[in-house]
Amino acid sequence: MSLWNTRALGLALAGLAGALAWSQLPPPQPLTLIKITDDLHVLEGSGGNVALLTTSEGTIIVDDKFAPNVPQIYEAAKKLSDRPIRYLFNTHHHGDHTGGNAGMMAKEPTEILAHANARDRMIKDAMPGVPRIGYRDGITVGLGGAEVRAMHFGRGHTDGDAVVFLPKHRVVHMGDLYSVAGPFIDYSSGGSALEWVKTLDQALALDFDRVIPGHGPVLKKADLREYRNKIAAMAKQMKDLRSKGLSKDDAVKAFDPKPLGWEPGRLLARALPGLYDEVGK
Predict the structure, then answer these.
(1) Which of 16, 81, 101, 137 has a Cα-to-Cα distance from 252 of 20 to 30 A?
(2) pTM of the model
């Protein structure tokens, strides 16, 4: 992970999304535009993946990375279409997926939508660019013959995660319900490993072929199913360690993510104490 990514991600998770914090970061690295179909693209790079859907009546965006990424996102959107950016979906409240909200709204009168829990957390944390529209179970936007559905299936990464489904394209944007490098269970924001599995089961019931993860390359439905199984295995491993009588500290030290294909890291380490508590309930 680059210096910019490492520092920016730490700030986002710490809730330091203010202008002062972002001004202390170096300029963001160039983003990579990936074509899925003629009208659907993904911007990969620093921060969470951005989906851009262009229609005859305007553009719909899913997530908007960090505040310094706004010029790059806006430029990419305008190269794809000269139509206005009409709607922006946030998959959850973390600053590496919502940091561009205020900047995007300053560019155009874009309507931002997020699950009510994500919106509430942004208000509580005084984050910039709070969406005006919050929903509970789900919401559908139709524009220029395209349809985008945001659905909340339950807790996982946080308690405000949305699965954004494009039925015509047979694509889902999972936000951080799917992060290729491994999951971060944000227990401070209502996350849950055990509920995460159930949430992914509902997402997998949708009719789609390709998956845009919160972080990582565009993959297939089978990859999301494998990820679901890994999260279940993660919870089982911790439950087994606890059943052996290990203390929380010892269980966290003994936990081995390598059989799951995940490298030990700070985000996983932050979640393991909470996982120990959750599997013991």
Answers:
(1) 16
(2) 0.91
Distance CA 76, CA 242 (A): 49
Residue 152 has, within 13 A of its CA and on its CB side, a CA count of 23
Distance, C-alpha 260 to centroid of its chain:
20
Which of 71, 224, 255, 261 lies closest to 272, judged by CA? 255
- Residue 153 contacts residue 164 (beta carbons within 8 Å): no
Q: Output the six-digit token pair for 131.
A: 């969406």
181: helix, coil or strand? coil
3-class state of residue 178 by DSSP: strand
pLDDT tens, position by position, for the chain (281 residues)?
A: 333 343 334 434 444 334 445 445 566 789 999 999 999 999 999 999 999 999 999 999 999 999 999 999 999 999 999 999 999 999 999 999 999 999 999 999 999 999 999 999 999 999 999 999 999 999 999 999 999 999 999 999 999 999 999 999 999 999 999 999 999 999 999 999 999 999 999 999 999 999 999 999 999 999 999 999 999 999 999 999 999 999 999 999 999 999 999 878 888 889 999 999 999 98
Residue linked to tokens 């997926």: 97
- Report how far residue 100's alpha carbon sits from residue 77's, in angstroms, rounded to the nearest whole number: 14
Dihedrals phi, psi of 50, to nearest 5 degrees: -110, 130
Distance CA 42, CA 74 (A): 13
Report d(CA 18, CA 22) in Å as an integer. 7
